[in-house]
Amino acid sequence: MFEMCVYTMGNRSYATNIARILDPGKIYFDSRVFSKENCTQENKKVVLGAESAVIILDDTEDVWEKHKENLILMDEYRYFSSSKRPFSLDNNSISVLKRDEKSDDELMGRDVRQVLKTVRGEVLKGCKIVFSRVKNNKKLWEVAGELGATCCKELDSSVTHVISTDMGTRGSRWAVKHGKFLVHPRWLEAAYSSWKRQPEDNFVVGC
């Protein structure tokens, strides 16, 4: 049902070696290895195939400026334990594109970009977020919207989450006083990369 290939911004020898490690029996990728040497934005061959049927897995969004709707942004792989992020990520299951009751024929005819948008929009559905003195606020606001959350600037009883990096902000103090979730921006980033709402207790401000 799927045909997978490897693409890298590195050279072809690097990509070939990585493919050999990931798929020594050539079961999944076979010889479908592409690098920046033969796939460039200029010749528009970065996405190989119909855009409505291509899913891209990468930990870098900037590379796919023209194909963000096809992208599943992955959390960066960190080999050394000392380089792991300071928060605990609940990612026991990343298979968020669960099989529904539709037949294979119906699924084959759907635009994956719309499927990804729909599934992503369910992750934080029902959450209402206020950002309290957070850098890169605009980008995080967009991410929250893509995940189905509602963002606002006013603190009221309908707000479910306050996102901040500082316990001392007015918004942070309000969240604590009124029993609302007070979380670090990484909570939002983790939800985006894992495609599931993460436990708020794992992203406490000040940790």
TrEMBL record:
The keyword Aminoacyl-tRNA synthetase does not apply. PROSITE patterns: BRCT, FCP1. Pfam families: NIF (PF03031), PTCB-BRCT (PF12738). It catalyses: O-phospho-L-seryl-[protein] + H2O = L-seryl-[protein] + phosphate; O-phospho-L-threonyl-[protein] + H2O = L-threonyl-[protein] + phosphate. Residues 119-205 form the BRCT domain. GO terms for cellular component: nucleus. Residues 1-100 form the FCP1 homology domain. Its main location: nucleus. Keywords: Hydrolase, Nucleus. It is found in: Nucleus. PANTHER family: RNA POLYMERASE II CTD PHOSPHATASE (PTHR23081), RNA POLYMERASE II SUBUNIT A C-TERMINAL DOMAIN PHOSPHATASE (PTHR23081:SF36). This is protein-serine/threonine phosphatase. It comes from Papaver nudicaule (Iceland poppy). The lineage of its organism: Eukaryota, Viridiplantae, Streptophyta, Embryophyta, Tracheophyta.
